[in-house]
Amino acid sequence: MQKISVSSIRKKKGKEKITMITAYDALMAKIFDGEVEVILVGDSLAMSFGGYKDTLSINMDNMLYHTMAVKRGVQHSLIVADMPFGSYNSPKQALKNATKLYQQGGADAIKLEGGLERLKHIQLLTQSGIAVMAHIGLKPQFVRAEGGYKIQGKDDVQISTLKQEVEAFNQVGVFAIVLEGVKSEVAAKLTKISDVPIIGIGSGKEVDGQVLVWSDAFGFFEEFQPRFVRRYLEGRKLLKQAIQEFAADIKNGYFPSDQESY
Questions:
Q1: Annotation marks residue 180 as catalytic
Q2: Rg of the chain in Å (alpha carbons)
Q3: Which string of DSSP letters, residue by residue, matches 193-215?
Q4: What is the pLDDT at residue 148?
Q5: What is the pLDDT of residue 147?
Q6: CA-based nearest residue to 187, from 163, 207, 170
């Protein structure tokens, strides 16, 4: 199996659904590698594994560490690294930090959140040879500023803004756009006007692909379950049973056996 490239992702537009999942370490990345086209080193690790209330507490050092770890576990899937909150306040800062994720982290592309205010940032990155995946709609890094996680595309103003963002980002060379928390019928229309793939999360099925956080999809994160998450495994329950069995075997003298001893 060949390494998946940015150009191969672009070519799937309108032809084949794109699969994308998060990973934050080499162990999980090895399991997911080649099973999905895109592995996202997401700032969602702040909530899923860091215990934070939102994604804003992750910094560049954290993202660089986890991107490097994922890189060591991946041979086939495309690696996209999130630009964390505060790492791209200006185009110059965005280029500096995206370059780190490329050179040191080994990312194949970066993802950043924001609307038209990020246009110059994206343009500078793409002109500098960095592949960019935009992220619009519901933007988790804006949760405090916007007073919560709010579904987008509910009125004409929001729809018009989303349309402008899709068109503008297409023009400055993004290779894909994540569309989060957007009304399904709006997401379908945005997908039709975009020349690059639209990857949805909580935005219905009429998009070019889907992404989920792995701990949500496989039942390890149970603090809450968003409506758009489908659980493919009751991971937490299975692991809980296994650790209980492990502890019981030790206490009862069943582990280790003679065959497991030197």
A1: yes
A2: 20
A3: H-SS-EEEESS-SSSSEEEE-HH
A4: 81
A5: 81
A6: 207
